[in-house]
Amino acid sequence: MTTFYHSTRSAENSVTSKQAIMTGIAPDGGLYVSDQLGEKNLDLATVCSQGFHDTARLVLGTLLPDYTADELASCVAGGYGAQWDAPEVCPVSPLGDDWLLELYHGPTCAFKDVALQMLPRLMSAARGADGRRVMIVTATSGDTGKAALDGFAGVEGTGVTVFYPDGKVSDVQRLQMVTQLGSNVAVCAVRGTFDDCQGEVKRIFADRGLAGRLEERGVALSSANSINVGRLAPQVTYYFDAYAQLVRRGVVRMGDEVTFCVPTGNFGDVLAGYYARRMGLPVRRLVVASNANDVLTDFLSTGTYDRRRDFHKTISPSMDILVSSNLERLLYFASDGDCELVARLMGELASEGVYTVPERVMARIREVFSCGRADDADTRATIRRTWEELGVLIDPHTAVAKCVLDGVEADGSARVCLSTASPYKFSADVLGALGEVTDGMNGFACMDVLERLTGTTAPAQLSGLRAEPVLHEDVCDRERMAAFVESACARVFL
Ligand SMILES: *Cc1c(COP(=O)(O)O)cnc(C)c1O
Predict the structure, then answer these.
(1) pLDDT in tens, 97-121
(2) Which of 189, 190, 188, 177 is nearest to 151 (CA)?
(3) Percent of the chain, pLDDT > 90?
(4) pLDDT score, position 146
(5) How much is the pLDDT for 226?
(6) What is the pLDDT of residues 144-169, one digit of tens each?
(7) How far apart are CA 482 and CA 188, in angstroms?
(8) What is the pLDDT of residues 381-412, one digit of tens each?
């Protein structure tokens, strides 16, 4: 078997991509990387002559070489089928002089669908013939939970359990989760905060007694978080496919370089752009856009990553992150695979909360990456300006990227702003940015007003929620979460 992946912190003990996808994180705490990345370029003429599905098969076949062509074809057909409300899957549309890459046409209206409609299918294929079953356990502050539920619902040999903090997610987010269909899904509100939920999920993963009891039933627990190779690889597809769309529109000639601006949290999305570049995509620059949690802007400017700072709650909550886990992979590649260096820096981050990257590595990073930040006021102003001047309605995460891109000096290359969520997922904040008063209005009332005000239409996946029956009403204390997981396993895997 081809062993392709090893830890960022040690080159020993290689695993196949199927094993990397099943285990998520390497045993030493590092992230799985492959030294073959960039050895073989994708053929750009082929990419430009085909659609999203063919490019997805090509990209996944390159990054996950131990899957058979048949396995990948079936994963791609299932993952990017009729649950997407755009035939292109991820269409590119005009944004003034720039371009918008719309990643929000999936079942939960956020870009995480691109990866989370694929990961469950990749896991199911990786399970192989031994009949092992996996229960995904996730704590969510709102968005990831629904994307995981929708991705894993109905996928053979898998189950998914989601915990969210009771009363601390929006009406729309709660309804998205509690109306989820599927005999292999479980949802429970927890009396406490998101940190309580996440802390307990971490403890559940480390609970040897629970693991032993589940193993007797042939069940293993796993997570679906964004450091999994099975989430990263699918995201590479849309960089290549967006380029192909621009070539077909006559905006760029094949071989011309393109700049991408990416609203960034855990560094997964923008890292996929870096992978695409290493696989031969002509990328001029990757612009990392941050909100008020600007740890990455400081890092790229100074070379010092310092998480010892205040956490800001913003109107782009999926980017409210102080430790961008996937950055570890960039450090690996930019240091030419210096595992010792990566292990030392990550050790310093864990013990001191800060590390400084050698200048030669930073120079390599700055050849490709630019950065910028936008606070909530900038974000609101950008939503309003983009609507009033360009007639394009964007969500707060996309607006962070648009604001940062507007501040980057044009260099003649075509520029693409990644759009990571439907504006209707954040109707209240978008309405507020447009100058409307939303006091006392629930999520659906805001959706209605936003439709009337802009003449745009809310995605059916969101507006239809108010008519759907609530299927999950469990609420528990933190102490009961492990028992909830165990009973969910018993119910899902009989
Ligand atoms: C997760 C998310 C992001 C951040 O993506 P990363 O891969 O974590 O950098 C940006 N916008 C939205 C809407 C998201 O859900």
Answers:
(1) 999 999 999 999 999 999 999 999 9
(2) 177
(3) 82
(4) 93
(5) 85
(6) 899 999 999 999 899 999 999 998 88
(7) 11
(8) 999 999 999 999 999 999 999 999 999 998 89
Which residues span the domain enclosing 168?
Answer: 1-494
Q: 342: Cβ–Cβ under 8 A, 6 or more apart, which residues?
A: 8, 9, 30, 328, 331, 332, 335
Ligand 1: residues with CB < 6 A are: 110-112, 143, 226, 263-269, 318-319, 397, 420-421
Domain count, the chain: 1
Kindly tell me the sign of the dihedral angle through the C-alpha atoms of 249, 251, 256, 262: negative
**Inter-CA distances, 69 with 60, 239, 269, Å:** 9, 21, 25
Atom of ligand 1 nearest to the CA of 272: 7
The rounded distance, in Å, linking the Cα atoms of 173 and 191 is 17
Q: Is pTM beyond 0.90 here?
A: yes
User: Which atom of ligand 1 lies closest to the CA of 104?
Assistant: 13
CA dihedral angle for residue 415, residue 420, residue 424, residue 426, rounded to 10 degrees: -110
Q: What is the pLDDT of residues 5-50, one digit of tens each?
A: 999 999 988 999 999 998 888 989 899 999 998 888 999 999 999 9
Measured in angstroms, how far is the CA atom of residue 418 from the centroid of ligand 1?
10
345 token code pair: 């820096």
| Cα(187)–Cα(157) distance, integer angstroms | 18
Query: Dihedral through CA 431, CA 387, CA 467, CA 154, nearest 10?
Result: -120
The verdict on whether 112 is a catalytic residue reads yes
Biggest alpha carbon–alpha carbon distance for the chain: 61
Ligand 1 atom 15 nearest Cα? 318
Of 112, 146, 402, 425, the active-site residue reads 112
pLDDT in tens, 313-324: 899 988 988 888
CB-CB contact of 22 with 259 (8 Å) = no
Q: Which is the closest atom of ligand 1 to the Cα of 321?
A: 8
Model pLDDT, residue 20? 93
| Pairwise CA distance, residues 480 & 477, whole Å | 6
Instruction: Name residue 5's beta-bridge partners.
Output: 15
Ligand 1 center from residue 226 Cα (angstroms)? 10
CATH number of the structural domain spanning residue 351: 3.40.50.1100
Ligand 1 pocket mutation pick from 105, 111, 287 by most atoms within 8 angstroms of CB: 111
Ligand 1 center to 62 CA (angstroms): 24
C-alpha of residue 288 to centroid of ligand 1, in Å: 12
